[in-house]
Amino acid sequence: MASRSPLVCASNCLQNILFRDAFTISRVLTCYQPVRYRKRSSRHPEWFVRRRVKSFDEGLTQENKQFIKDLTVEQYKNKPSPLKEEPLERGEWDLRTRRTGVLALKIGVIPQWRKDGTKIETTLLQIIDNHVIRYSPPEKFAQSAGWKPWWGRKYGSVVVGALSCEPHLFSKEYNNLFTEAGVPPKRKMTRFLVSPNAAIQPGLPLTAMHFRVGDYIDAQAKTIDYGFQGVVKRHGMKGGPASHGGTKWHRRMGGTGGGGNMAGIWKGKKMPGHMGADWNFAKGLRILRINTKYNVLYVTGTTPGGNHCYVRIMDTCLPNRRREIQNEPPMPTFYPEDVTDQIQEEYIDETLFDFKEPSIEYIDEESNK
Amino acid sequence: MNIIQKHICRCLIQKCNSGNVPLSFVPARQATVLNWLLDKHRKSQLSQQPEKEDDIEQETIMVPRDYKYLYPEFLPPANYRHRDRIREKLERQDMFCRRTMIEVPEFYVGSILAVNVADTYAPSKNTRFVGLCISRENDGLRTNFILRNHIDGNGIEIKYDMYSPLLQSIEVLKLEKRLDDELFYLRDCPPEYSTIQFDMEPIHLPTGSAVPLNTIKVPLGPRPWDKKWDIKNFKGLQPSNRVLGKRAAIRLERSAKPWEEHDLMKQYRENINDEDVETVLKEVVLKTKKKSTKSQRRQ
Amino acid sequence: MSLKIPYSQTARKLRGTFGVGSGPSGRIKRLRMCVTGLIRHERIESTFARCDETRGYAERLINIASRHGDKDKYAMEVADYWLLEKDLIHKLFKVIVPRYENHRSSYTKLYMLPKELPGYGKDMGVLELKDNPWPQVVPKQRETKYFLTNMLVDELRKEHHRTKRSPFVNKILETSADNIDIDSIQNQYILDNLVDNDEGKTKNDQSHENKND
């Protein structure tokens, strides 16, 4: 590669954009080996790819910076799409299939009204620039080190990325991950477990039409980080009285254990410590409204995490809220060719009040009789 | 300086002067995306469907001065962590849709309103309430206002969501302003200051006149009160005769915060800046233009 | 007018000092002294946290002064409160406001000073008004226009504009997709083992992103 041009040695930025290669050291695949480490550790996992380039000012002039930016946009627009070559067969949906999810961003919480006049809180989740980056079938997936034995050998994996960036921000190794999908490097990636009949091709975009109005979903996100907190805030304990002789005994824990045979502090005793920044689920949320222009889902209730946090959305695992066989979802995801008529800008649930309608009036049934 | 120090110095200086970018204010553990960064991604050409900007000549639109007080619910929250451009846009769309269905008139805290609401438990499935507006809170679809009246010896307050579909109509019986932004102190005032007849006839203002300011000063009733109203410097309250004890006077002295009067950054954090107000109100002007030609203030 | 500098939603708590006092009242007293010092000398050196706090107040003060003018009562009140030495009020309205008449960006600049090795104590910073008469804080950098990278990219750019797309770039764009061995072991290994709670990745990213973006 170096023999092509002296540019390779000269610029780190250009290396990332113009010259991509796959000269890498092959690694040995290992079997599953349980490793003990702290819950929140700053240690990287074994498969960590150095994502950022070191802060190295190349001293490019403003014109040249703009030129390289334009070049990257052009490069990704003119790239032959991997989707045109031998598309994967689309499987059929049954009750045991597991489709991919999407990676959304939480935008905010606003109230909406049902048609019977009750007020509900809805969370807005925007899906920005989602692409499938890799699919690996169950046989391959089971060999890898990240695979856990309790998942079984019936699921493959799909990697989904969101928010495309300019490649000169990242290292060459990280950019090489996206060559198969033919998309610009993404800011954030996640992995979903997928059954083999929902196999999906790398390079496919995922939109809000992946779901339908009336579906139930699970949302997984990282909760707000509160830092080191006391026992009253962390576990909701009662504390002590504010007055009536409460000396230095207001937000304390109380007794930690009994005496005699069962003496001592047991494992798992609720105590002060780090609160939040933990993965959490909100299950069985109903999609009430979909905006296709901005790719926004309106979902009942609230999801974990603060504003503008990443949220993993997938079909619900709750048995009572799954789809019926007649109402099958788009498999493996929504293709614009499937629909003959034009896609509407908004889809609204039957139970939800549409603001374009006139206001609700209750009818007096007794007087009508 | 040796070479290492020079290098560190250079790195640090670069870090501080990287333009209009918040540096250390979002903790790194909070895996959230910053506002400006998200907007950049939405509009970037690398994305699958980049967002198109509205081709409206916004610079030519002039925003009237009183729009800030006429449509306070369109103004977004001041805290930048609770803000999002697309969410505000979608919320405003819903509000404009609702405003085409129901006429939301101009009113302020202190004016008298009559509200019709659908109600399952009422015999006629519809209730009408007349009262004095004592507060107007929140923004977006979450806006509400509280009406207060004194009926059969009981003070009654009802909170209404302004964009609830159950609201049938809002009618202004008397349009005026008061000296304060909130009139919660009427709870502890004599009842005649908050009693309003249900069969009150609407009072019309002459065309083109400004909204009148009611400069009435209300006396407080006997103690106990809900809050210490006499301490809080309300303009619409008569000064009370309560004599503070020794301890209470000291406590009052300690609770004063004279340094907050000129705390410029605190004021900036708690209020929205004027540039953001203008961008929002320009959209409001565009949408309400068509309506205002049809129905001006009822005279 | 909106601020052109980064600010946090919650104010910092500053440490109390002798003669000024602690708490919110002491904080404002200290900041008033810092703002007057900044307007007087146009460059001050203090702890980084204190510099960063004064920056917001100084920007707001100039903002208000330039917007309302010296005949406004509110602007004069604010200037009178924040400038302890009263001859500076004249300087604010007559010297500093006209200086930033056509400014689009912020009025101040903030630098972080290096620590002496071995490092101890607090971070120190330098705060200055823009366009001041002092010599520059950062010594003049080398001109990057004639670096090797710049020269090479310049040539590439010119060629690209001439022929709409140069054969050199064309070649790269075509070959880069095909030449890569997609099924190389590493790529698969990495992507298969992507875990979502990769805290190590996200931890240091945001500060870096800010820098480059």
UniProtKB/TrEMBL annotation, chain A:
<protein>
    <recommendedName>
        <fullName>Large ribosomal subunit protein uL3m</fullName>
    </recommendedName>
</protein>
<dbReference type="InterPro" id="IPR000597">
    <property type="entry name" value="Ribosomal_uL3"/>
</dbReference>
<dbReference type="Pfam" id="PF00297">
    <property type="entry name" value="Ribosomal_L3"/>
</dbReference>
<comment type="similarity">
    <text>Belongs to the universal ribosomal protein uL3 family.</text>
</comment>
<keyword id="KW-0689">Ribosomal protein</keyword>
<dbReference type="GO" id="GO:0005762">
    <property type="term" value="C:mitochondrial large ribosomal subunit"/>
</dbReference>
<dbReference type="InterPro" id="IPR019927">
    <property type="entry name" value="Ribosomal_uL3_bac/org-type"/>
</dbReference>
<dbReference type="GO" id="GO:0006412">
    <property type="term" value="P:translation"/>
</dbReference>
<dbReference type="GO" id="GO:0003735">
    <property type="term" value="F:structural constituent of ribosome"/>
</dbReference>
<dbReference type="InterPro" id="IPR009000">
    <property type="entry name" value="Transl_B-barrel_sf"/>
</dbReference>
<keyword id="KW-0687">Ribonucleoprotein</keyword>
Automatic annotation (TrEMBL), chain B:
<keyword id="KW-0687">Ribonucleoprotein</keyword>
<keyword id="KW-0496">Mitochondrion</keyword>
<dbReference type="Pfam" id="PF01245">
    <property type="entry name" value="Ribosomal_L19"/>
</dbReference>
<protein>
    <recommendedName>
        <fullName>Large ribosomal subunit protein bL19m</fullName>
    </recommendedName>
</protein>
<dbReference type="GO" id="GO:0003735">
    <property type="term" value="F:structural constituent of ribosome"/>
</dbReference>
<dbReference type="GO" id="GO:0006412">
    <property type="term" value="P:translation"/>
</dbReference>
<dbReference type="InterPro" id="IPR038657">
    <property type="entry name" value="Ribosomal_bL19_sf"/>
</dbReference>
<dbReference type="InterPro" id="IPR001857">
    <property type="entry name" value="Ribosomal_bL19"/>
</dbReference>
<keyword id="KW-0809">Transit peptide</keyword>
<comment type="similarity">
    <text>Belongs to the bacterial ribosomal protein bL19 family.</text>
</comment>
<dbReference type="GO" id="GO:0005762">
    <property type="term" value="C:mitochondrial large ribosomal subunit"/>
</dbReference>
<keyword id="KW-0689">Ribosomal protein</keyword>
<dbReference type="InterPro" id="IPR008991">
    <property type="entry name" value="Translation_prot_SH3-like_sf"/>
</dbReference>
TrEMBL record, chain C:
<keyword id="KW-0687">Ribonucleoprotein</keyword>
<dbReference type="GO" id="GO:0005762">
    <property type="term" value="C:mitochondrial large ribosomal subunit"/>
</dbReference>
<protein>
    <recommendedName>
        <fullName>Large ribosomal subunit protein bL17m</fullName>
    </recommendedName>
</protein>
<dbReference type="Pfam" id="PF01196">
    <property type="entry name" value="Ribosomal_L17"/>
</dbReference>
<dbReference type="InterPro" id="IPR000456">
    <property type="entry name" value="Ribosomal_bL17"/>
</dbReference>
<comment type="similarity">
    <text>Belongs to the bacterial ribosomal protein bL17 family.</text>
</comment>
<dbReference type="GO" id="GO:0006412">
    <property type="term" value="P:translation"/>
</dbReference>
<dbReference type="InterPro" id="IPR036373">
    <property type="entry name" value="Ribosomal_bL17_sf"/>
</dbReference>
<dbReference type="GO" id="GO:0003735">
    <property type="term" value="F:structural constituent of ribosome"/>
</dbReference>
<keyword id="KW-0689">Ribosomal protein</keyword>
